[in-house]
Design brief:
alpha/beta; single chain
């Protein structure tokens, strides 16, 4: 089939490449011309897609990248994987709207449009569908097909195509065609009764994680005040084989999903029903203040050592929001650095997964985590325990470490 994947980021590019690998003719559409040029040159900027895979589908002609809307004509299925950020607590769906208008100009009878971008329940049927109908002059269900299938990025255990894929359609025929497309890409597809169910399921997945992370973060602060090792308590609780899911504390949450997705549901509930989503709002408040807690712990530790934070050299290790990621969006490291700089500290950061100057968004000089840099710091803060860090070396050379990931040990180490 002729496939369009609109948005060639961390969600869209893996889908586009996989669809090309299984035999479709795929156009990767993105309005970022720099991205398109990189893709056309066979250079992947997404960790889940090796450049060798990208070059293979480019060479075979199964995949092409474009920023030109005219190149989308004739598609059988178009998948929308554009960003859906929050702006001052309000969902910004302008990327979906713009993409829908572009696709609508090339929509033809029998074709299907699938939304993967995370949003509140009702987005597919109440926002996407009317734009497609207005732009194309066609009628959803009668003339063209549509549905929602939330993105699910794999992890260390679950591959991209091995992660079960939720699928939905605005009617039975839409579901049948959309499921058939994803059946050829994913090992397992899970159909649900309609787009609103799939949209809510995605928000439920991430809100579950968001709330539990906030709970364990708050419990970590309480445990420290009580003089109890929270990490030992977590491991003890995790010996129960049922009724408990292990979550661990950290310096806060970040990325494109966890700090954002629960707020879509909170906004929708407040706007349409006048009902606050208290769990999400409380969780957001706890997680938002975790960087402040990290800095407070660090200041207290330095004071005990007779070293004021002002003028101290602080080395932050791991700046991304997630383990071994290459993404700095909404990373708590930015807030930690900002607070420490505001207190007069001399802050530098080590992030082996992202080249210096590559859109870090962090106002700190970058260094490598060498024995010399570690030894020169008055304090080292392990924010993210990337595998490229030499933990034994850090233990040996650091005069003091605040370990936010419970990976280090020794007299010079304190855990969060």
């Amino acid at each position: 089939m002729q496939i369009v994947v609109a948005g060639q980021g961390y969600v869209g590019l893996p889908l586009a490449i996989r669809a090309a690998e299984v035999g479709h003719c795929v156009v990767g559409y993105d309005v970022d011309t720099d991205r398109v040029q990189q893709l056309a040159a066979g250079q992947s900027y997404v960790r889940d897609v090796d450049s060798s895979r990208l070059r293979a589908v480019l060479d075979s002609g199964a995949y092409s990248a474009t920023a030109e809307g005219a190149a989308l004509a004739g598609f059988d299925i178009a998948v929308i994987t554009v960003p859906t950020p929050l702006r001052d607590g309000v969902p910004d769906l302008t990327y979906i709207e713009s993409c829908a208008r572009t696709l609508g100009e090339h929509l033809r009878p029998g074709a299907a449009v699938v939304l993967e971008s995370t949003s509140y329940p009702g987005t597919t049927e109440e926002l996407l569908l009317p734009i497609l109908e207005e732009t194309s002059g066609l009628k959803g269900g009668a003339d063209f097909l549509a549905g929602f299938s939330p993105e699910r990025i794999g992890n260390k255990r679950w591959s991209f195509d091995g992660t079960p894929k939720l699928v939905s359609g605005i009617d039975a025929k839409s579901l049948d065609v959309i499921k058939g497309f994803y059946d050829g890409i994913f090992e397992t597809t899970v159909p649900v009764s309609g787009p609103k169910v799939a949209e809510l399921a995605k928000l439920l997945e991430n809100t579950f994680r968001f709330v539990n992370i906030s709970m364990i973060n708050e419990m970590a602060m309480l445990a420290d005040a009580l003089g109890v090792n929270i990490w030992e308590a977590i491991d003890a609780a995790a010996t129960k084989p049922f009724g408990f899911t292990k979550f661990t504390p950290g310096p806060g949450v970040g990325g494109h999903c966890l700090p954002v997705d629960p707020m879509f549901l909170s906004w929708k509930a407040q706007q349409e029903l006048g009902i606050p989503f208290r769990f999400a709002e409380l969780a957001a408040d706890v997680n938002r203040h975790m960087p402040d807690y990290v800095v407070r712990r660090l200041v207290e530790a330095l004071n005990k050592r007779g070293t004021p934070v002002s003028g101290s050299r602080i080395l932050l290790l791991g700046l991304t929001y997630k383990f071994n990621a290459t993404d700095l969006r909404n990373s708590p490291s930015a807030r930690v650095a900002e607070l420490l700089i505001g207190l007069g500290a001399d802050v530098c950061g080590a992030e082996p997964n992202i080249p210096d100057g590559d859109g870090t968004g962090l106002n700190v000089p970058r260094v490598d985590a060498t024995p010399e840099e570690v030894a020169a710091a008055d304090a080292v803060v392990l924010l993210m325990d990337h595998p490229r860090f030499d933990l034994a070396m850090i233990e040996e050379h650091a005069s003091y470490v605040l370990d936010c990931r419970n990976r280090l040990s020794g007299a010079n180490v304190e855990t969060l």
